[in-house]
Specification:
- This is L-glutamate gamma-semialdehyde dehydrogenase.
- The protein is α/β, with parallel strands linked by helices.
- It has two domains: 253 residues, 3-Layer(aba) Sandwich (Aldehyde Dehydrogenase, Chain A, domain 1), CATH 3.40.605.10; 187 residues, 3-Layer(aba) Sandwich (Aldehyde Dehydrogenase, Chain A, domain 2).
- Helices cover 42% and strands 21% of the residues.
- The protein is built from 15 helices and 21 strands.
- The strands form six sheets. The chain has a seven-stranded mixed sheet, with helices on both faces. A five-stranded parallel sheet has the order 7-6-5-8-9, sandwiched between helices. The protein has a three-stranded antiparallel sheet with strand order 3-4-21.
- Strand 17, helix 13 and strand 18 form a beta-alpha-beta unit.
- It is globular.
- The model has no long low-confidence stretch (mean pLDDT 96).
Length: 479
Amino acid sequence: MTALVSTCPATGETVWSAPAATAADVTAAVARARAAFRDWRATALDDRIAVVRAYAGVLKERSDALARVIARETGKPLWESAQEVATMIGKVELSITAQAERAGHRETPMPFGASILRHRPHGVMAVLGPYNFPGHLPNGHIVPALLAGNTIVFKPSELTPAVGAAMCDAWHAAGLPDDVLQVVQGGRETGAALVDAAIDGLLFTGSAATGAHFRRRFAERPDVILALELGGNNPLVAWDGDVREVAALVVQSAYVTTGQRCSCARRLIVPAGAFGDAVVEAVAALIPRLTIGRWDDSPAPYMGPLISDQAAATARGQVDRLVALGGRPIVPFGTVEGRRPAFVTPALIDMTGIDAPDDEIFAPVLQVHRAASFDDAIALANATRFGLSAGLVTADDALWQQFLVEARAGIVNRNRPTTGAAGAQPFGGIGDSGNHRPSAFYAADYCAYPMASFEAGGATGQWDALQPHLALAEGLARS
């Protein structure tokens, strides 16, 4: 049996290890979830809500311990891991509200009785989690799916299995029946077995390439609900404002979480001329001042390592390609002396006038493009197959209105980092950034299907309504 081992990217120490689930293990887990579905979907909504709220209570009790697990397994600074746990807790009440508003019970009186809208769960949902937010992002699928009455088989990222195990344990400590939520640990083979199993839905957060594979894989399985939250080559247009504030906003957009957020800015678009040059220079001056360190360093660092040495090597290869195409490193993509290879320094690459690959570099790498006009800036922003997030920095209301009309993205922010998103709003993108099933507040939409009913206390009035037609038919028969 293959062993699954996760390591801390900051230290190389083993965080978690256990045997990976086999295809037979996955099949058995799905079968147990199928059997558990009958009782869980019949459980009263108030009782499901009580379990979900109890889960939030367990997270609160274990918040410090869970934050440390997230920090060790991802390399994130502890302050950011603590924020992730707080977001997981906040997701519970937001999901309860969303379920009521978007997938609740509606009843309209009619002359014969009532028109009623209900929502029903799909069945067994497979959740594939990412490594960058190993608690928050799968939590955003799991909580609404359980509220709706689905059962779940959850495969965490093979890079962050300890977080997935801790989440599952918290659910069961909250009183959720064991087979309603199960975790299968493993890599690609385990995930493939889960995708091939008799599931009713696949809820996935990850790369656009994997999302494209799932689109093809499920093209002939329309019975399976598919919700994809993918990446982006996100533009940030910085057009006017206080240079110092703009530069800080750019840094927060591009380099937070060591660039490992799907909503991070990947392309900085500035006007050609003095203001654009000043913004680029100010960002370049801030980069060396960003503190980089282990998750438990004191004082706390701004950035930790990338998720793995391999991730750093992949990003370095992508940056080398940009330079080979003619990109000019304003601030090169570097290593951190005395640290493991997963530690990298942020890069700022001038790609003005260069046809750069339309790829997501999942690392602290920002490409600079200069635009001759605001129309050109919007055209550059939209020149991507993705469409997750975009931002505009301006005090000009007219420019903002134009940007709102013409920008192609699911999250469009003004004078705020591209990474800013509210849990009480939908989260998702267009193009290769998703499949038109946004998550966050709108996750309730894909966790249940609507059932519309006409209902009356008895079968009355139908015979009288049919009489004129019966009389006509009898007359025709006699003639």
